[in-house]
Amino acid sequence: MKKYILIKENTFEKVRKKINENKDKKIIFTSDNDELNRKVLEKLAIDVLLINQSGRRDFQKQRNSGFNQVLAKIAKKGEVAVGINLDEIIVPREKSKLDILARVQQNTKLCNKNKLRMVFCGKNDRSMHDLKALGLVLGMPTWMTKDLQTFFN
What we know:
Blueprint lengths: L3 E4 L4 H10 L4 E5 L3 H10 L4 E4 L17 H10 L2 E5 H5 L3 H20 L4 E5 L5 H10 L4 H5 L2 E4 L1
Parallel strand pairs: 1-2, 2-3, 3-4, 4-5, 5-6
């Protein structure tokens, strides 16, 4: 039996209901709606905020990674880890792979600055040695890779 649950919903009420049903498990929340991500991060008790990078469009002069300093401060206050979707990095379309890696690097810098934990999530299991090496390449400091957590289906 899995010790965690992945919640991907589009409305706040459905998310709250699923979280209340699964209080005994670690909760990983993901959504493509940035406003919903912030609302859930502020008001509900989750363990991991998984930010999907595919399907995003960058702004003219900055990357749209779905994570900013405001969300970082809220996540720090609630002790929420930031999730990296490993499937987006491993099996993306060729052109979008560079954009996804750049956005993940931007999120890694914000997490390091605010002393937030990061975790890897995905469908295919990888060795911890490979994930730590990938984390270091993406800009994670050694304190972050030392206690790196993974969640795989």
